[in-house]
Amino acid sequence: MAIRQNLLVLLSLAVLIPTLNANTLESEEYWQKHENEFDPYWKGRAETAAVDNNAAYFPDPYSVSGNLSSSVSELIVGKDKRRNLKGQRYTGPCMATNPIDRCWRCDPNWANNRQKLADCVQGFGRNTVGGKGGPFYVVTDPSDDNMVDLKPGTLRHAVTRTGPLWIIFERSMMIKLKQELIMTSDKTIDGRGVEVYIASGAGITVQFIRNVIIHGIKVYDIQVHGGGMIRDSETHYGLRTQSDGDGISIFGSSNIWIDHVSMRNCYDGLIDAIMGSTAITISNSHFTDHNEAMLFGASDSYDKDKIMQITLAFNHFGKRLVQRMPRCRYGFVHVVNNDYTHWEMYAIGGSKHPTIISEGNRFIGPDNVHAKEITKREYSPESEWSSWQWRSINDEYMNGAFFVQSGPELVDRPFSRQDMIKAKPGSYVGRLTRYAGSLSCRVGLPC
């Protein structure tokens, strides 16, 4: 019987795996091609971004993760652990169930004070202010027809302007991007108050820039697109090769905050952060229907990703996810108070000795007895990975899930209440992530 069960598992994997998209960022040919294609303009942007990325790096990452943990421990609102079901509007009092949401969601005048959102980010992306201080830009037109002579009122026109902008939307709209949407620094995309869908086209590219907030939108069914002449700023356009099919690609950039997004079914990754990107927080978001969800660090040979620092907080990793929530190379990743309700292969993986601190998460193992392990070390023998610091602190394991720890135990952690997030135990995750994903906010009411 055991042999038969094992054969069935192997057969099911043999059927499943060829149908899933491998992450194209991991091929060495990809890196050779893209390193060679940078013209002097992009090489200059890369040099500037490297300076910004190094400046955004925190020399003591434990202090940053500890401040987040402290603020969570001081806030638990409500006793109901049930998740807010889609399509059913909650009509009771405002329940901001985690410290990021508490900063802005219960203000009925949020629409008149949108830029307050920039004061709410925590974790490694805590210095991100996006377009704060800049004017508002109202997107009025969902079209995306011309990649060079951009039409005012479109999202592509907005994200390529010079200087800080806070980008909002006149009405609900679906935007089908003809090519990757290449952003410039100091921008906020704020979808609150309407329904904004980036769908069935290309994805969002955050390349060699800094200071970006993406909030309150839905991103799904992102496809590979062929490239061509594309504007990437007010003053420059150039030839781009085929896009990779990521929902959001963070490439050599810093001070990035992604909050309350809903994402599913992108050709490559949902969110990838590569090429020395750092100072990133991904929070309050809902992810479903994808194979390789998140890739942090794309190449074993690119050790500049050692400066990568990413916080994952209050996210819900939901139905029909397979693996990589995230998969990390190098860097320091704080995974705090997320709800892992579904995976088919594993939840958190990595190679090249990343530091992964898993704190106060809930892990509900799949029914497949061969996929209960949360962690996966790739391409490394135990003699090597046993020294990597992968620690589980106050996580909750359900349905047989288990986390294989490694590296030195965190004793007398240097957590500073001024700089770090402190998690609640995993048993609180249901309420902390209750409102994960894009919110249905109405002007004049708490969100």
From TrEMBL:
> What are the record keywords, sorted?
Calcium, Cell wall, Glycoprotein, Lyase, Metal-binding, Secreted, Signal
Q: Which family does this protein fall into?
A: Belongs to the polysaccharide lyase 1 family.
What SMART domains does this protein's entry cite? Amb_all (SM00656)
- Gene Ontology molecular-function annotations: metal ion binding; pectate lyase activity
A Gene Ontology biological process in which this protein takes part is: pectin catabolic process
Q: What is this protein called?
A: Pectate lyase
Instruction: List the EC numbers from the record.
Output: 4.2.2.2
Q: Assign the protein's first listed, main location to one coarse class.
A: secreted
